[in-house]
Amino acid sequence: MRWLSSATVEHLRRVAEWPDLADTKYRLLEELGRGGMGAVYLADDTVLGRKVALKVVATGVSDPAAAERMLREARIIARLEHPGIVPVHDAGALPDGRVFYAMKRVDGSRLDALAPAMPLAERLRVFQRVCEAVAFAHAHGVIHRDLKPENVMVGAFGEVLVMDWGIARLLESAADDPSARPPGARGTAAGSVMGTLSYMAPEQAAGGVAGAAADVYALGGILYFLLAARPPFEDEAAEARARAGGADAPPRPIREAAAGVPAALEAVVARAMSIAPEARYASAEELSAEVSRYLDGERVLAHRETAVERAGRFFAKYRTAILLVAAYLVVRAAMLWLFPR
Amino acid sequence: MRDDDTGTRLAAADRFPATRHSAVLAAQSDDVLERERGLAILIDAYWKPAYKYIRLRHRAQGEDARDLTQGFFTRAIEKDFFGGYDAAKGSFRTFLRVCLDRFVANELKAAAREKRSPGAPMLSLDFEGAEGEIAREPPDPSRSVEQYFHDEFARSVFGLAVEQLREECAQRGRDLPYLLFERYELDRDPDERVTYESLAEEFHIPATQVTNFLAFARREFRRIVLEKLREITSSDREFREEAKSLLGVAP
Predict the structure, then answer these.
(1) In Å, how far are A123, A129, A162, A290 from A119, measured between CA atoms?
(2) Is A146 a catalytic residue?
């Protein structure tokens, strides 16, 4: 009998779990990743001759709730036609009974992996694209509820895509659908805790209904990550939040986590991640506009500037003109000194 | 049947393991032939995990570990150890491990293996091969002995499934799907990026055929693994639990 290394055994474990695509138009190529609800595979669409990403529910036919969640996710994404949201092409059940949906294959990298190597201005522009996609979803009545850098893909052509809408919620739902809880979700009297504690709004972590403000909070968390290269709540702090049921703990000050973060951006993060939902930016668009102000060298609304900061911003914004004028004045002064009348 | 049809045409018949008689139940049967069949299947699946477990858990070396493994399975045959298994109390895998611990403890205590009659039947077990495997990949100290036993059980089931896949492909005169499976899934070298296109070039077939053959071989492999699990468990519930623990999902 052939000996199999542990790495091969682990690989075969996954191979044996791969979905049965017999008699479908898809041919499975490789596994791209997996999460709590299911796994994503690269597949060939043999009819259209293109590669697609297939998300397939993790459990077998014995879990109809999981299948329903997967279809629900597909339907939510299907109603969000936006360049920042990956389009769904197809959905249904495979011959082995597992529910799947096919979406555009994104050739790129996750934001958490890519961000540390990006210049600040580029990170902020990517962040604005995330805000735009989220604002679009909100305008169509969809709350993502699990925004984090790991759920943002930056494509090969610079496109920014918000992924994993598995626990998204429709605003018209009066309350969260208990059947939409992913495996392991903690239920509470008020609702259910779903999402990632490192980026989760306090009201969501406490089991309350998460609205657009919860997504704004998580966007603040993403901005925190983009500035500090670490999540606002790391493992222990996130666990402490879980234990406290989303108690009002602010994240570690960003300038403690990463020196040199501009005070204006620190203030933007602080406002986006305010404990009280009403103290946050009213929308993802407002948050994006605030970042635009920073990029354009204008004053951000969340930050009260000192005179020195104002002068610094003024200098940064008009640097070229100021340097030209200064150079002119220096030359003029030198000429007056060298050639006095 | 044309080669490029293999993936699609053979697939339909092999979606789910055909119901087989459980080897665990067979091992408890009053029918001698049926009992022997069941025991042979169980020994095939478990002897290597048991041997490695004895080496690690009971720190038995060389001859001692071999004698204990031989002794355990021959005693299981003689004394009908497995007849006492009650599916309501847990999985057969756990039952076997507990039996093994008890047997080894008793043997060591009484030093009985020296007293075992020379005429006791000997099973044909490849201990040299098992030793070679331990040398190639020593036990991970971060894993508990129970986890180690489970890991070795998974290795044994997958190893048997790979072997059966190879045999079945050969019997059907379809060696190519197995060879592709072996090359792409088993001989994985992290430094070598094997693609469907490179395999197509290597085996002189179109890339679409590589895709079909691999899809076929993976389905067959899954079917055989589930079939093996069905065989070495005693109930549908235990089968699903073992499948979940081995594959990560309930079938």
Answers:
(1) 6, 16, 21, 19
(2) yes
Residue B183 to residue B173: CA distance in whole angstroms: 18
Residue A5 forms part of a structural domain? no
More confident residue, A334 or A197: A334
Range list of β-strands (E), chain A: 26-34, 38-45, 50-57, 88-93, 99-104, 108-110, 142-143, 152-155, 160-162, 169-170, 186-187, 192-193
How many distinct structural domains can be found in chain A?
3
Whether residues A286 and A324 fall in one domain: no
Closest CB from B160, B185, B249 relative to A15: B185
Q: Are residues A89 and A128 in the same domain?
A: no
A22 and A129 share a domain? no
Nearest chain A residue (CA) to B140: A6
User: Which chain A residues are within 8 Å of B179, Cβ to Cβ?
Assistant: none
How large is the average pLDDT for residues B131-157?
Answer: 89
What pLDDT is attached to residue B15? 36
Residues of A in contact with B152 (CB under 8 A): none
Beta bridge partners of A152: A162
Q: Which residues of B touch A17 (CB under 8 A)?
A: 222, 247-249
pLDDT tens-digit series, residues A65-87: 888 888 888 999 998 999 999 99
Which chain B residue has its CA at the smallest distance from A94's CA? B15
Are residues B137 and A23, on separate chains, in Cβ contact within 8 Å? Answer: no
In a domain, A2, yes or no: no
pTM: 0.66
Question: What letter does residue A93 receive in the DSSP assignment?
Answer: E
pLDDT digits (tens, 9 = 90+) for B27-63: 888 888 888 888 889 999 999 999 999 988 888 887 8
pLDDT band at B114 (very low <50, low <70, confident <90, very high): low
- Would A46 be classed as within a structural domain? yes
Q: Domain of A59: which CATH number?
A: 3.30.200.20
Which one of A104, A136, A153 terminates a domain? Answer: A104
H helix or E strand, kind and range, residue A330: helix A319-338
C-alpha distance from A166 to closest chain B C-alpha (Å): 19
Residue from B167, B222, B240 whose CB has the most chain A CBs within 10 Å, to mutate: B222
Domain residues for the domain of A177 are 108-295
CATH number of the CATH domain containing A187:
1.10.510.10
